[in-house]
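Marked as duplicate of an earlier ticket. Keeping the data here for the record.
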Amino acid sequence: MELKFTKDNFEQLVLQADKPVLVDFWATWCMPCRMLAPTIEEIAEEADGRAYVGKVNVDEEPQLAIQYGVRSIPTLIFFRDGKEVGRMVGVQDKEDIETQLY
């Protein structure tokens, strides 16, 4: 299941998570984001308790984008134990994303 991360739940759902977390920073008007969306949805469905996968809409949550230095979208940030452990910018292959996540 794909989660929606906001400034109100980010700390609890991402920084305090007991599993790896993939955060997709995106926007509705971003064509590369739309191209990547089905891949992120698939990863979220297949994560099956191994990881959390969700999105941050940069138009709705600009402070999170600023806080994490997101300058281009889509940006995927990977977290473990509350810390950023990896980052990818642009449309990526599913296999590459899963390698980084797990």
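See parent ticket for discussion. The mean pLDDT is 97.
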